[in-house]
Amino acid sequence: MKLAEVQKALNAEVLCGTEWLDREIKSACGSDLMSDVLAFTKEQTLLLTGLTNIQVIRTAEVSDLVGILFVRGKRPGPEVIELAQSKGLPLLLTTCQMYEACGLLYKSGLAGCPPKEEANCR
Predict the structure, then answer these.
(1) Around 31, how many Cα atoms within 13 Å sit in the side-chain half-sphere?
(2) pTM score of the predicted model
(3) CA-to-CA distance for 47 and 41, rounded, in angstroms?
(4) Residues 6 or more apart in contact with residue 54 via CB below 8 angstroms
(5) 117 pLDDT tier (thresholds 50, 70, 90)
(6) Which of 10, 13, 46, 99 is the most buried (most CB within 10 A)?
């Protein structure tokens, strides 16, 4: 799935990085705990979060994430958007709750990020 498809599926606003919406996403991680993001994400992951501070960008950079989707209509400040732009990290915003956004993306075929040891939650 591409970021542009995520934007369309969630009616998301692009805060920065329109030029990178053709990036491929292999999985998504919905979390407000950056320690979980560091522990469970893999390459080509999209982060869904309600946190809007600078640490989200730093975590995304360290984790090599494809982009960040802010949920619940949470809008980061200009300094967060500027840093993301300078790091080549697209930011999107949706008014969907995290549960709903994750569910819609899962329904569209986007996988989640299981723990390092495969979890079977079914």
Answers:
(1) 20
(2) 0.91
(3) 9
(4) 79, 80, 83
(5) low
(6) 46
